[in-house]
Fold this sequence. Notes:
By secondary structure, the chain is an alpha/beta fold. It contains twelve helices and eleven strands. Helices cover 41% and strands 18% of the residues.
Amino acid sequence: MLDQIASFIQGHDSFTISTHMSPDGDAVSSALGMYWILKKLDKKAVVVMCDPVPRHLDFLPGVEKILSPKEWDEARYEQAIVVDSGNAKRVGDQLYEGFRNKFVINLDHHVDNPGYGNLHYVAGHASATMVIDELRETLDVPLDQTLATCFYTGLFSDTNGYRNANVDGSVLAVSTKWVGAGADPHFIAKNLFERQSWPEMQLLGYALSETHIEDKIIWCAIPHEVFDRFGVHPNDTDGIVGQLRSVDGIEVSAFFKEIDQDKVKVSLRTKSDLPVNSIAQHFGGGGHVKAAGCLIHDTLDNATQMVIDKVREHMTAAQL
């Protein structure tokens, strides 16, 4: 399938690249990696995302070129490439509608990806950037520092600093390759994990003070007005669910953020073998077995209650 995708890319000239809502490190890095590959092939390319890039990712090469849907000149780019998005609708409503009339290539590493698009390659790698690097090799595009920085950042971010269960010899080997090509591990780690602003730290304090723990489940729900109070964008809070998961004795952590009226983003993590992606799928989302998410169109209270009830149901069935 990679050969077929590479052949299609070589035979066409203009591409819109996008990824999922509330983009994380792997989403932004894989989109930018794809962008630089296309530019090296002398293709016309643009990266469009429905939500802003988190502040701590502003060091990535090319991040300033990313457009919002309002800035996107859809007619100029005939084909579409979606990266790191487990289902087609996760790109956001405007892009989803815009892509209906385009040839879509789906490149992903989420095992629950249904294989949407006209061409798709879904491999269960530790990051989407590993998938993009495979495509780079198939296209015979040389690896340089720019690409290595994007690829390493996505992998380091999506494995939670190499702490996730999917870290194995292949992950360390490809990381070594990227470092050899110019990726700077210390610089990337510092940007990913040591750049919280003081307002973000204050919001974390608020979140911890509002946290609930019951039946090996830990969760926190933050209303939209609280983000405004602290001056923090909801996209700059993804580390909170990881903080919750770090509590000893916890099996599942959940973080709920109200990003608009009756619009709640849910992040789920687990330290057990409970497949939280199946919980997210119940609400129209998806992800990995141990890290998943969804978007619920309901009040914050209702969304929280529904998800926690579903988590309890799955934990009871798994005898956790």
